[in-house]
Design brief:
Blueprint (H helix, E strand, L loop, with lengths): L2 E8 L9 H4 L2 E8 L11 H18 L7 H18 L6 H12 L6 H18 L9 H12 L38 H13 L5 H15 L6 H15 L10 H7 L1 H11 L4 H38 L10 H8 L5 E3 H8 L3 H13 L3 E3 L8 E4 L2 H9 L9
Antiparallel strand pairs: 1-2, 3-5, 4-5
Helix pairs in contact: 2-12, 3-5, 3-9, 3-10, 4-5, 5-6, 5-9, 6-9, 7-8, 8-9, 8-12, 10-12, 11-12, 12-16, 13-15, 14-15
C-alpha cells in the first residue's frame, strides 16, 4: 500500500514507571498509508480467477440459505467470532466456552476471558445484523462494534473510543522506538477512517477485493488502543453482507487465519509495502478454504440432526409430528448446551411441553444431562461440541455416511 513515513520524537518522561532507558527521548517514524480512494488495483488473470473462485465459493455456501437454516448461520457466526479471538491469543476449550455461554444465559457471570470471547460473538452479530444494514456505513458503526467487543473486557474503558495517542506493534511497552510497526499519528485518523467508510459504501470493486482492502487498511490504521484485529475482521463480514454475496452464511475466514497466523501477519505486513496483490491473493485463498470448510460443516451438522431425528423416531414413544422435541432438534445448532428456560424462549412452547420434549430427547440419546440436580439443569447436544471443536481447529468434517 503506498504511503509515507512521518518522523516523530518521543518526549522524555521522567514520571514514566519504566526502566531509565525507556524514559529517554527517542526518534521514530509512523506510517501513514495513502487513502484507499487513491489506490489503483490491478489483478492479473491468475489472481482475478482466484478472486472469482472465492466469490463463487461464498455464493455456493449461501445458495441454500433461508430462515429454516438460521440456527446453522448462527453456529457459523459463532465459530468465526471465536476464531477471530483465537488469532489474538484469546481462547477457551469448546466445552468450557459452551458452559460459559450457558452461565451467561442463566444470568451468572463467567470468567473474564469467557466474557471477552462472548462479547466478540455479540460484536460480530452487531456488525452483521445492524452495522451491515445501515444505508450509509460510518465511523459510528465502527465504534459501536468496538464498544460491544470490549464493553465487558478488563480494558473496557477504551471501548468505542478512537485513540488520541500514538500506538505501536512490537518493540517495548513504553515507547514506539524500535517497534515492528507504528500506525499513523492520531491526527490522521479521522481522515483515514472516513476513507475506509467511504470504501465500504463504494461498490466499484468486487466484493472480495473490497473486503480484503478494507480489512488490511483498517489494520494498518489501527485506530483503537486495543481490539483492532477483531474489529477489522468483523468489517470483512460487513462488506460481504452489504454486497449481498453472504446474506446468511459467513465464511469463517478467521479459522483459516488462526490456523496460519504467521502467514496472515506476513500478508498484512506485505500490504503495507508493495504487496497489495499478494495480500489479495492470500485473502482470496483463505476465503476459498473457509467457504469450503463451512459447507462441509453445515452438511455435517445437518447429517447429525437427521441422525437425531432417526433416534427420536426409533424410541418406544416417538412424539407426534408437531411435538416440541422436533423443534428443539432444529434449533440445537444455535444452542449446543440448552436449558428448559432457553428452550422455552427460543421455541415459544409451553414449559411443560419443553420438559416433556427434553425427557424424550434424553431417552433418544440426543441430549445428555450435565447435572443430576433438578434446579438450573442444562443438557448438551450429543456430538455437536466435538464437531464444533474440529471445525474451530480447521479440520474438515468427514462426508456424511
Amino acid at each position: 500500500m503506498p504511503g509515507h513515513l512521518v518522523p516523530r520524537t518521543w518526549q522524555y518522561d521522567p514520571t514514566l514507571d519504566a526502566p531509565a532507558v525507556y524514559k529517554r527521548a527517542c526518534q521514530y517514524e509512523a506510517f501513514v498509508p495513502d487513502e484507499l480512494a487513491s489506490l489503483s488495483v490491478q489483478l492479473d488473470a491468475q489472481l482475478a480467477g482466484l478472486v472469482s473462485e472465492a466469490e463463487h465459493a461464498i455464493r455456493v455456501l449461501n445458495d441454500e440459505a433461508g430462515p429454516a437454516l438460521d440456527p446453522l448461520a448462527r453456529l457459523l457466526l459463532r465459530t468465526e467470532s471465536i476464531a477471530s479471538s483465537k488469532v489474538e491469543g484469546l481462547q477457551l476449550g469448546v466445552r468450557e466456552l459452551a458452559r460459559a455461554e450457558a452461565k451467561a444465559e442463566s444470568g451468572s457471570k463467567p470468567s473474564p476471558t469467557a466474557m471477552e470471547l462472548l462479547a466478540n460473538i455479540d460484536a460480530m452479530l452487531l456488525a452483521v445484523d445492524e452495522a451491515a444494514t445501515v444505508e450509509r456505513f460510518g465511523v459510528t458503526e465502527i465504534t459501536a462494534v468496538h464498544r460491544r467487543l470490549l464493553e465487558r473486557a478488563p480494558h473496557q474503558h477504551i471501548a468505542g473510543h478512537i485513540r488520541t495517542q500514538q500506538n505501536w506493534i512490537g518493540g517495548n511497552d513504553y515507547n514506539p522506538c524500535g517497534a515492528d510497526f507504528i500506525p499513523p499519528p492520531p491526527e490522521d485518523l479521522a481522515r483515514l477512517l472516513a476513507d475506509i467508510c467511504a470504501s465500504i459504501n463504494n461498490e466499484t470493486l468486487s466484493p472480495l477485493v473490497q473486503a480484503a482492502l478494507v480489512h488490511a487498511q483498517f489494520e494498518t490504521v489501527h485506530p483503537f488502543d486495543g481490539g483492532n484485529g477483531r474489529t477489522g475482521r468483523a468489517l470483512v463480514h460487513v462488506v460481504l453482507h452489504r454486497r449481498g454475496i453472504a446474506p446468511r452464511f459467513l465464511p469463517p475466514i478467521s479459522v483459516v487465519f488462526a490456523g496460519s497466523r504467521d502467514r496472515y501477519i506476513a500478508g498484512l505486513t506485505a500490504f503495507r509495502g508493495d504487496g497489495v496483490a499478494a495480500w489479495i491473493e492470500h485473502f482470496a485463498a483463505a476465503t476459498v478454504k473457509a467457504a469450503r470448510l463451512a459447507r462441509a460443516y453445515i452438511d455435517a451438522v445437518r447429517a447429525m440432526q437427521e441422525r437425531w431425528r432417526q433416534q427420536l423416531r426409533a424410541t418406544d414413544t416417538a412424539p407426534r409430528a408437531d411435538a416440541a422435541a422436533w423443534t428443539i432438534i432444529d434449533l440445537l445448532p444455535a444452542h449446543p448446551m440448552i436449558s428448559a428456560p432457553v428452550a422455552t424462549a427460543v421455541t415459544g412452547r409451553a414449559r411443560g411441553r419443553i420438559y416433556e420434549a427434553i425427557e424424550q430427547l434424553v431417552t433418544a440419546g440426543v441430549l445428555l444431562p450435565l447435572s443430576a440436580g433438578r434446579r438450573n439443569r442444562w443438557w448438551e447436544a450429543v456430538g455437536l461440541l466435538d464437531l464444533i471443536g474440529q471445525v474451530e481447529a480447521g479440520e474438515v468434517p468427514p462426508p456424511a455416511a
